[in-house]
Every structure is written in C-alpha cells, then in structure tokens.
Design a protein that fits this description.
It is built from 4 helices and 35 strands. It has 485 residues and is mostly beta strands. Strand 6 and strand 7 form a beta hairpin. The protein binds fe (ii) ion.
Amino acid sequence: MTTIDNNPFQVYSPLYDEHDYTIDDVTGELPAELRGTVYRNGPGKMEAGGTPLGHIFDGDGMLSMYSMSDGVVRFRNRFVQTKHYQRSIISEGAPFRALGTMRDGGLLANALRFPANVANTSVIMNAGKLLALWEGGRPTELDPDTLRTKGEYDYDGELKWLGAFSAHPKWDRDTGEMFNFGLAMAPVPKLICYRVDRQGKLSRLGQVKLPGPMFNHDMGLTKRYLVFVIPPLVFPLHKFFGAAFGLRNYIDAIDYKASVGTTIALVPRDGGKTRIFHTDPMLHLHFANAYDDENGDVVVDVLNYHATWEQLNGQLAGVETLMETSTMPYGGLPTRVRVSGSGKVTIDEFSDVPGEFPMININQMARPNRYFYLSAATGGSLFPNALAKIDNETGKDTLFQFPDGHLPHEVIFAARPGATEEDDGWLIEPVLDGINNTAGLYIFDARRIEAGPVYIGQLRHHLPLSFHGCYTPRVAQPKGATATR
Ligand SMILES: [Fe+2]
C-alpha cells in the first residue's frame, strides 16, 4: 500500500496557478443554510527566485477562498502581492532574508536585514477588512471579493516600526472587540498588546516585558485578561546577534531552555497592572481557548508537545527536509493550564488525542467552551490524518479518520444561523490527498463528525497545506467565476 510516508514532497508542492471556478465535482450536498465565505492562508510556494526556502514559515502567502451560497461553492486563490512575492518571481536567487532562509550574496547581503513579510500565516475578516497576517510585521489588506492585494495596513499609523501584529487575534463576541499582540525585539524585548474596537480602531493596551529575546506565537482572551503562556523558547544573545549580523538564520537562533520555565502573563483588559506567574516548562504553539471560570480561575487550554524544540522545528522545516527527517509523531496533547486567584498554577493533560490547529465555535471565545476540534493524528502518524472533536464536559473524543494519505488542513467552524447549541454548525476543511496530489473541500455536521462529510467538493488541482483561516457569513462575490448556478 502506498502511504504518504514515502511520498513526502507533495505536502507543500507549489500551486503557482491562480484559479476561479465553481466546484462542480461534488459528493453529497452543500447544506442550504450554510452561506458565507471561508478564507485560508498558507505558503503557496516554497522557493524564491529558484532558491528553495528553508522553512515552511517562509513560503509566500497564498489566500484561498471558498464562497458558499445557494448550494454551491466557488473557489478562488491568489498570492498576496508582497514585495517578497513580487521580487521572488523575477529574481535570480532569494531576493530577501526570511526567517529560515538566507539571502543570496553571503554575509554582507544578510547582515542587519529583517526577515521579509511574506503574509502567509493567517487571514481575518474584521471591521470590514480582509487582512492577511504574519507575526513579524504589518497585516496586508486584500479585497474580500477579488483577493486583490491593497497593501500593508498599519491601523492608521498605530502599528509602529516593524508593526508586528500576531497571527492569532482573539474576539469577544459580546463587545465586538478584537485583541492581539505584537512581538517586539528592540529596544526592549516585549509583547505589545492591542485592542481593536468594533469600528476597527486600534489602541495600545499594555505590554509584557520579556527577560530577553523570546518567541511567542499565540494568546488567549478571557473577560478580564489577555493571557500569555510563554514557552521557554529563547534567542540566546550570541545566537540572536549572530542572526542579526547574518551568520545564521533567525529560526535557527531559537533554543528551548527548560530552566527558564513557562511564563504566564495576565494583561488586564481594563488597563490594570500585568500579573506574572512562572510554572514548569512546556512546549506549545497554539491555544484552543481561554476563559475565567466560576471560581475566578483563569483557564487556558493549549496543545502541549512531548518533544524537543529541535524535533518540532524539524517537522516544520523546509520542503527539502520536511517529513523526510521527522520522526516525531504529529501534534501536541490537549492540556489545561489553570491560574487560581491566589496565583497557584496547575497543568493537566486532559486528552490523549494528539493534534494541532485547535478550533472552537468563536462565539465561545473568552467564555467556557464545551467542544473543540483538532487536526488529529492517530496511530502515531507523522502527519494529521483525522478530524477530532473533544468534549470537555464528558471527556469523550470523537474521530473521523480520513482515507490513507489524506491530510486535513485546519478545520473552520461555521455556526448554523439561529443555533442555540455550541456545536450546531459545520466544520469546513480542505483536505489534501497527498498520494494523488489532489485536494477537496470537506464539510461535516459538527454534531456528527463520525458520520463523515455531508459534502465533498473536489478541487481541480492540489492545495499545499495551509496554516490558518476564518469564516464570515458575508458571501464573497468572486468576479470572474467560470460558472454559476
Ligand atoms: Fe499559528
């Protein structure tokens, strides 16, 4: 039997062509009530000027769009027209430094140069703007119908200097506010916190000073706090300056230093003083949710890895090594971090289903959630091969196992209009068939994932694995679609 294990290079093989069409190869039916648009972002190509990129974080951002209405799905994909992308398609060799890729031309060509903004990590629709996010720099705004790039967006000048704006903002559906942070390395390493109001106006909220240059990817939100659970991923100064002066990649300058432990920072939404706690070292990238419980504890669910940073980073490394050298089973374990009112921290792994890309019904952000969903890995797989639904109330997990060689991207939840139950809605995810190098859009009834997809729309091409995306009830009108019904 052919497995994805001996066919590793199709996972991130590029999609250079930009498509517009109505998906017409369909199994099942698109639910009539499911209207809206799913946007996704991820690396669409893994070379620049013919030079292979060194890390999947470096690939040029490519948006894909699934516009769903009247029983049909229209697909469109477009590269984000960043400077990196525009130069990369005409240059000889890599035109810029990236996080894990050096520019051609040796030391002088790399010293004191920041990684290029490749706008590849996530995409959000907020206050009427479609923004591609990349955590090292400013968002990039795109037209929500055509995916035409409008340019970098700095919130009316409020994002200063590099304008780092993380790829994991969180929403409070009661207030319409969005919260996010940016990682600043100089002059003092810190996390700068932001609040964006319902109208899209950004203001600074506070900051978390870091003991030195560190890496932090995600955050949580409760009714009271922005919550950071910062793993001990540090840039030792000699490595940090080595990277800055072009002696090594930025990504290779990160070390996991267990002795630093995990730092928890609670930044009050009302502008009060930040509270800091320290606990045992953990290795994680993503949060499932955070909330204040009925006792006043702050509860955060993360995916905790039983692996070294070298193993995890190796799994994330570039196409030349990805999957070939990885020996680490895919995913982290759902883990609850609880901070009591008195500051006591407890850590509890509460599920044995390994996975990544946790997703919830975003109406539950900042409040207790019963369910979350994962791209899961069964049987010690090195790749995601299943969709999992975890029930926090019963501890039960439900799985849908994809056929051999099929890799699910992150799943997106879309609530059914008028739903009163948390899991009343649909789970929408592209799935790559890594053996045949094709892809499809799978849609599940979130209440019954074990029953299998209610809809599979076969794409006319493959789709390299993407990182993060969003759903909006706004139906995009992709001009130029080749067919309508
Ligand atoms: Fe992420």
